[in-house]
Design a protein that fits this description.
It contains 10 helices and 9 strands. It is of the alpha+beta class.
């Protein structure tokens, strides 16, 4: 290992240590964590993914298998601090809206954990899918996917959440397309979350105080524009025909039906891992998106 890499690794370990210590203090007084969305690392074995050994925007990936039931497997992301928060929130809202995504679990690091697998303490697992086509064309989706219309609803979700990365909808052996790899959604990044949970002064700045102010006072008004969505829907209609219009608009209706209680529940779970104000940011984001969706549908002329 080169000297520069050594310094980077040491800095990352120190930030991880400081975040975990602060999160432990923040969780004091909360009820003991109990959620079907949470599993513990000690109950699983982990291995690097072979032969692909995939490394991408989410860093190196692991395959986990539950020790007692090896058929329960997850594709695990752990290298960047935004993967778990963004993909967990995305999956919870998408599934509440009736769209296909792999089941997601957050991995809590077991007290007895000694294995040096995890670059960050923010670890998420996506249920392993038996994929038959990793990158099907729309014509293949149209012919073979039971939920082919969701291709367009996924397109709208991509825009609603501000994604900027690749758009992946693999075809799975159950005959459905699924939306996967949604780390690069929401205006919240690895750069921010690396220090958001650190409550010690660094170069004259208290990172946790700074990011709390930033997140809880975030202005959402600039994120969505009616003319932009109108243009995108027109573009898709020109390319795919009028049959795409209804599924493109559907997410604007469905997201309004997600209850505040449901959102609070999964964000409460997320806040056992991330600073509490990160949950507050997502709550405000989703509330703003629900308001925009309601107003946008008012502009649609049937």
């Amino acid at each position: 290992m080169k000297l520069g890499e050594w310094h980077v690794n040491m800095a990352e370990r120190m930030m991880k240590k400081l975040r975990m210590e602060e999160k432990l203090r923040e969780n004091e007084g909360k009820p003991q964590l109990s959620s079907p969305d949470v599993v513990y690392t000690g109950d699983f074995v982990f291995s690097k993914i072979k032969p692909l050994n995939r490394i991408g925007d989410s860093g190196s990936l692991l395959l986990s298998k539950r020790k007692s039931t090896r058929s329960e497997q997850y594709l695990v992301k752990h290298a960047y601090s935004d993967c778990a928060s963004n993909e967990f929130v995305y999956s919870k809202i998408a599934k509440a809206m009736g769209y296909k995504m792999p089941n997601m679990v957050l991995f809590a690091i077991s007290p007895e954990e000694k294995r040096n697998y995890f670059k960050t303490e923010y670890i998420i697992g996506a249920k392993y899918l038996d994929i038959t086509n990793h990158a099907p064309s729309y014509s293949v989706i149209r012919e073979h996917a039971t939920n082919w219309k969701d291709y367009f609803s996924f397109r709208t979700l991509y825009l609603m959440t501000g994604e900027e990365d690749s758009f992946e909808t693999p075809l799975v052996n159950d005959g459905f397309i699924y939306r996967v790899d949604t780390t690069n959604a929401f205006p919240i990044s690895n750069f921010m979350l690396d220090t958001a949970g650190i409550n010690v002064e660094i170069n004259g700045i208290m990172p946790k105080t700074y990011w709390k102010e930033y997140f809880l006072n975030y202005a959402f008004d600039h994120l969505w524009d009616i003319k932009y969505f109108d243009q995108k829907i027109d573009d898709y209609t020109q390319e795919y025909g009028k049959e795409c219009i209804a599924p493109l608009l559907e997410p604007f209706e469905r997201i309004q039906d997600i209850s505040a209680e449901y959102i609070d529940d999964f964000l409460n779970t997320l806040c056992y891992f991330y600073p509490d104000f990160v949950g507050g940011f997502f709550k405000n984001y989703l509330a703003a998106l629900q308001r925009f969706s309601k107003e946008y549908l008012k502009t649609i002329v049937n």
